[in-house]
Amino acid sequence: MTNASDKEILNGVILGFRKLINDRYQFDAIKNKYDIPDTLDQERMVLYRDFFLEQVYPHPERREMLDEAFKSLDNYLTHPDKMLRIVFDSAAILFRHGSSIPKLMSAGLQAFKSFRIATGFEAKLVRKAKNSGKQPPYSTEDINSFIRMLRKKEIDEFVVNTTDLLEILYDRKLVRQIIQIMSELIAKMKKSPRSYSQTEIDGLTIGLEMLQQGNHLFESLPPKDQRRILDIIVAIEVDVLEELFAEEK
C-alpha cells in the first residue's frame, strides 16, 4: 500500500474534522442537552455550524484558493504597524474613527489571528495522523484519536481561541466598527495599486468577509440571548473535548 502524501493527509484531516463539527452542531442533540433560548432554533444553529465550516474550517478546495491571501494576512499579523500606517495615511478614516483606531485595529487583527490559529490546530492533528501511520480517509474515531494525542495545553489553547473569536463577534458595536474601518481600508488600497499588491488586498478582503459572516451570528437577537448563546457554543466545544478525554480513563 502506497503511503499518502502530505497533501492527502492534510485533506483527510480537514475533511474528518469538518465531519466532527457538522455532527457536533445538530440541533436536536443540542436542544436535548442544553437549556437553549427560543431564538436558538434550527435555522440559527445551521448558521453557527456553517460559519465554522465555511469560514474557520473550510473545505480543502477553498483552502488552496485562500493560501496566498492568508500569507498576506499573516504579514499584517506579524507586522501590525504596516496596517496602522495605511490607516493613518487616510484622512477620511482618521476623521471617522479618531482615537479609537488603535483599539479597532487591534481587535480586528486579533480576530484574524483567531482564524489562523484554527488552521494551526489542524496542523497539529496532521502531525499526529502521520505519527499514527493511519492512511486517509479518516473516520470520526480516527480524528478523535488524533485529538487525544494532543497535550492538555494545546486543547486549552484551542478552546480559548474559539472563545476569543466569539467574544469579538459578540461585541456588536466593536465588530461593526471593525467591518467599517476594514471596508474603508480596502477601498483606499484598491485606489493605490502601485502601493498595494492584489495579494495584499485579497488577504484583507478575505479577513473582512470572515468578519461579515461572523457578524450575522448575533444579529437580530435580544442582548440576553446573545450572551446565553455565546456561552452555549463555548460549552459545546468544552464538553465535547472533556467527554473525549474522559473516554480514555
Describe the structure.
With 249 residues, the protein is mainly α. It has one domain. Helices cover 79% and strands 0% of the residues. The protein is built from twelve helices and no strands. The longest helix is centred in the middle third of the chain and has 32 residues, at 101-132. The mean pLDDT is 86.
Secondary-structure element pattern, one letter each = HHHHHHHHHHHH
Task: Summarize the biggest pleated sheet.
Answer: none
Separation of the first and last Cα atoms: 34 Å
What portion of residues belong to β-strands? under 5%
Number of beta-strand segments? 0
The overall pLDDT, averaged over residues, is 86
Q: Judging from the principal axes of the Cα atoms, what is the shape?
A: globular
Radius of gyration: 19 Å
- Tell me the number of helical segments per DSSP (H or I, 4 or more residues long): 12
Would you identify the regions where 5 or more consecutive residues have pLDDT less than 50?
A: none
Keywords, separated by commas or semicolons:
single chain, 249 residues, mainly alpha, 12 helices, globular
Quick description:
This protein has one domain.
